[in-house]
Specification:
Layout lengths: L22 E12 L5 E7 L5 E7 L5 E3 L12 E8 L5 E7 L7 E10 L5 E5 L2 E3 L3 E3 L2 E4 L3 E5 L4 E4 L25 E6 L10 E8 L2 E13 L2 E8 L4 H6 L13 E6 L4 E2 L10 E11 L2 E11 L4 E6 L2 E13 L2 E10 L1
Parallel strand pairs: 3-6, 4-6, 12-15, 13-15, 18-21, 19-21
Antiparallel strand pairs: 1-2, 1-5, 2-3, 5-6, 7-8, 7-9, 7-14, 8-12, 10-11, 14-15, 16-17, 16-20, 17-18, 20-21, 22-23, 23-24
């Protein structure tokens, strides 16, 4: 693999509206400490590799609080999901602070890999992991990318990051009966275990926004939204994971997502939003009676995904470039997945 990194500066706006001008969206964090005033916060966020780092943040009278009454209700150890504006000093001014589970001990965020069809168990690939995490042989703080969760008593939520759910031309729903492998979620728990048959009990499972990369094949008007039919590559998470045995097949066509764009969607694409264009779409992906539908919050130019190491017609690896905006900087990440 010979990745190419394209780095370019961007201007941070005083009132950013998207990732292109300084808005950080859906940042999972643990509250490390509260300052002399409740509006001054120190966050622990997932580091560049294994481990964590700290980030200074603050709130003001315009900050929207979800799950708690306000800044005074925040306490160290809570897990937060934040949107905010990058400040000149690299700190974050929170525009939204959500607390899904004030009693959680651990928090893991990432894509669902398997949803079992016989027992209420799921497997999560933890892209970000916060809290003490697993305790194995008396040793705590062990990070393990893949964890199994018992969701029989879990509370199911939808991220409050988007405010137009009630306007969608379908009923957005996320629960134990319609979640599917490939959706990105945030799971809170009291502990983590990698040793069966004891599985971690999930306290809350929250559907959070994710990015898909695909080619537009058609479009049509649907109420106040434009519905773009987007074809995914066959090695994308949804089509790849949908064919696994041992889970209920819930998707009619896991290679296609209906993407709904309205006036709230940030259009940062230079390529036309039209059939034939390859684009990236960021939003909440729902399983609507077997059809994948996304409430889209942002559109960017797509990324051409190359295949390599093909042996006997089988693809054994892929490379995909993903542009991320993090507090204080822009990073380009190249991800390699094995098949």
């Amino acid at each position: 693999m010979t990745p190419t990194f394209d780095l370019s500066p961007f201007t941070v706006s005083a009132s950013p509206t998207n990732s292109g001008n300084g808005l950080v969206s859906g940042l999972p964090a643990e509250l490390a400490s509260v300052g002399a005033t409740p509006s001054s916060l120190t966050l622990t966020i997932a580091g560049e590799t294994i481990g964590t780092r700290t980030l200074s943040a603050s709130s003001n009278s315009a900050t929207v609080f979800q799950g708690v009454s306000g800044a005074s209700a925040l306490s160290p150890g809570m897990f937060l999901n934040l949107d905010g504006a990058i400040q000149p000093d690299g700190s974050l001014l929170a525009t939204r602070i959500a607390v899904e589970d004030s009693s959680a001990i651990n928090d893991s965020s990432g894509p669902l890999m398997v949803v079992d069809n016989e027992v209420p168990l799921l497997t999560l690939y933890g892209r970000t992991e916060l809290g003490p995490l697993q305790t194995i042989g008396g040793q705590s703080g062990i990070y393990w990318d893949v964890a199994n969760f018992d969701f029989s008593n879990a509370a199911f939520n939808i991220s409050g990051q988007f405010t137009n759910l009630q306007n969608l031309p379908f009923v957005p729903s996320f629960n134990a009966s319609n979640m599917v492998a490939g959706q990105t979620v945030d799971i809170t728990s009291a502990d983590l275990s990698i040793v069966g048959p004891t599985y971690t009990a999930a306290n809350t499972i929250t559907l959070v926004p994710q990015t898909i990369n695909g080619t537009v094949v058609a479009s049509q008007q649907s109420g106040s939204f434009t519905d773009y039919s987007v074809s995914l590559a066959p090695y994308d998470l949804f089509p790849t994971l949908a064919v696994q045995q041992g889970q209920t097949t819930l998707l009619t066509d896991p290679t296609q997502v209906e993407v709904y764009v309205d006036s709230n969607t940030q259009l940062l694409n230079s390529m036309a939003l039209a059939p034939g264009s390859t684009l990236r779409f960021y939003g909440l992906v729902f399983n609507d009676n077997g059809t994948l539908r996304m409430d889209c919050g942002q559109v960017n130019d797509g990324v051409t995904t190359s295949q390599s190491n093909s042996r006997n017609g089988r693809v054994t690896a892929e490379s995909q470039s993903v542009r991320e905006v993090r507090a204080g900087r822009v990073t380009t990440t190249v991800v390699t997945r094995s098949h």
